[in-house]
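Thread: quick sanity check before group meeting

JM: Hey all, I'm pulling together slides for Thursday and realized we never actually wrote out the predicted structure for the chain we discussed last week. Dropping the sequence here so it's in one place. If anyone has concerns about the input, flag it before I start.
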Amino acid sequence: MLPLTRYHLTYYTRSYRYLAPLIAYVGMLLFVYTITPNPVPESYAFSSVWLFVVAAWLAWSFTDLEPEVQQAVTALHAGGAVAYHVSKQLLMAAVGMLLASFAVLYPALAGKLERLPAPEEWIAAAGVHIAMFALGTGVALWFTERGFGRSAASLPALIVVQVLALASAKAVAVLPDGMACIRWLLPPAGMLSEQLTRLHSSSMWSTAGVVLYALAYAGLLCGGFIARAAGKKF
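JM (edit): ok, ran it. Output follows.
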């Protein structure tokens, strides 16, 4: 699995498709933190939302990077389509850990925040950022060629879903009370960012519950995509 993951990394870095989302991600955070000091919960809430967007951008551009014929050859050498797609997700997970670490550590260690985060704030911020990256990746997978099909509507549809996921509270507020449960069907990105903003008024248990729910949601998205993609012929 590790050689296969290294192959994906080499192929991806040589394509330079990672440059635009990476520059956008780092550049936005550096720009936002030019003004100091910044409140801790709100700053981490913003960077987690931005990570959700960039994660989807990275996954959407990476998943269909190889030509279809080359995907079939790589999957054959990998021992099957499942191993092929799992190795891609492992690479995305490693990238997500790096980007989440940068978003959590940089503003605190560079003195961009009004104070050093408390231990529970470090833990909550790290968990939310990791969950946000996993959610962004899981959502984007379903709008790639193997998830959505070859359609010009895939990217606009992905953007719409992302907006609904982030604004789920406001989107559901206009619906009748009996339909409020629809919010639980949307990716819980909005719940995660809201949890960070009200970190001081909520318990660590509630934060952990939201993070675990988001990770489980992302796991279902990624696992379902792998099963669907592996069942399709190249």
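AS: nice. Residues 81-109 form the longest helix (29 residues). Residues 2-231 form one domain.
JM: adding both to the slides.
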